[in-house]
From TrEMBL:
Domain Glucose-methanol-choline oxidoreductase C-terminal: 404-509
Domain of life: Bacteria
Names of the cofactor(s): FAD
Family classification: Belongs to the GMC oxidoreductase family.
Record's protein name: GMC oxidoreductase
Organism: Microbacterium algihabitans
Glucose-methanol-choline oxidoreductase N-terminal domain boundaries: 235-301
Region (Disordered) residue spans: 41-75
Keywords: FAD, Flavoprotein, Oxidoreductase
Transport keyword on record: no
Amino acid sequence: MTATPTIAVVGSGPIGSTYARLLLEALPDARVIMFEAGPQVTERPGESVRNITDPDEKARAREKSQGPQAGSFRESLGIPAGAIVEGMFTARQGTHLLDFGGPGSAHAQAFPAAAAATNVGGQGAHWTCAIPRPAFSEKLPFIADDEWEDLVSTAEDLLHKQSAAFSDSPVGAAIRTLLDREFGAELPEGYGVSTLPVAGDPQPDGTMRWAGADTVLGPLIEPGTDTAARFELRDLTLVRRIEHDGTTVRGLVVEDLRTREQSFVEADAVVVAADAFRSPQLLWASGIRPAPLGRYLTEHHVVISTVALDAERMSALVSDEELEAELARRATNPADPVAAVNRIPFSEPDHPYSAQIMYAETPPFPLPADHPAAANRWGYVNMGFGTRKFPRVEDGATFSDDELDYRGMPNFTIDYALTERENAEIAEATERLRRAGQALGTFIAEPRLLPNGSSLHFMGTMRAGTDPATSVADPYSRVWGFENLVVGGNGLIPTANTMNPTLTSIAIAVRGARHLADQLRAAQREGESVG
Ligand code: FAD
């Protein structure tokens, strides 16, 4: 190994960024090169597009992130224009469906709403920034509690966690009171109705600057810092293959999507953090094909609804002056629709659901002027109850050697089905959602289960574990059998998880990065390769 180790990171989302930051801070001589298939869409690399105030600029940044569904931007992203046909389904802004329809699309009829983002910052440039901690059986069984506490706190620091965001909102507080009256007696101590922790920095005017990969990268993108001098981010650069001899990785074959030139980049270690489908796809393309790769796919299913807040119940808890002050504050930032975020966290045995309750002063869809809840002065809540999907080897992606996707990578098909056990929990969560809605006001959208893939939180496809027969990565996120190949992202989460997974995945990455740093340091001392 060279005196100055080079670590190659695939993917510029929050997880790749965690590795880049921690490795450069731990290893004063190391260099990190980060490869990202998508373009840089914000001035500051990886910033949340939600922070862009100009609506046209925001729309442009989102469209450029949509890879094969990026409309007129497509050719500038290295995607042949003629090859793509837009699908029937549309994805959330800033993302593109895996099964978008047309040549080169993945096959995901059983998981139709699954989507990804292809841009610097990954999905982390478009996310809602909710960062609850996993609890009870959601946690990783092979990490002891005291170490977990340290890992998850470090992850919260990297994301600039705010546990009391919007806690000064009187409407948010009244929503908590009403929900607590309905559910409080059934919930265990410490797992009651509360504010939802989010990632970002509150601004003096009461708005939030939402966190993205830029927040995680921190000093690496501040000109003049020592770590910035050792960090290189190459956007519009697709990693096509990991070069290895079966136990040791030597580097990456990358393609510059602007020039179509391919080159080999040598590396002492490689971190693949290219999301829950495209990371296993890259491993498969590189001939790294452990049996659990792509399998054990889970997400949390979501039952959602929208409720108009009840004037009588709300006005008993919030004065007119308080409401006016809140609405005036909100009017200063009409571009950000979220005013307060509450939750009922997952707990066992009696509440195995994660509820997210978002207050907004406008409904998420237009209501006819004569609708009884149109222009509701008290506003609305959008609620979702997340439920478990228990890991099964039958669910997951199967990669093809014969069929290529729109990027010329092995295409894949997703198999997925809900079982009786999951349907029963979804039915129970729907009942609780009804209770929550009735406690708060009047439904303007009845509870409904979103199509498979809608959570955008895809887990299990590269699970970390202690048994190579059922996991892709060891407890330190190294691909089994390789010393210097590390994987990261939601795909590593092996448990049935009901909530937003990014914090958990960053905590797992903190563990992986610390271990890799120790290994590289030891190899440096011995003047050897880590592999
Ligand atoms: P990503 O952010 O997906 O980044 C992976 C990157 O790898 C992509 O940019 C991709 O282009 C790149 N890549 C893929 N293949 C290659 C290749 N071969 N070569 C080079 N680059 C490649 N999570 C939460 O916890 N809380 C939330 O509130 C939340 N809300 C969300 C809301 C929305 C609208 C969306 C879209 C997501 C949300 N998420 C949320 C999910 C969250 O954004 C992801 O969990 C997180 O971004 C995952 O980080 P990552 O780094 O693993 O992957």
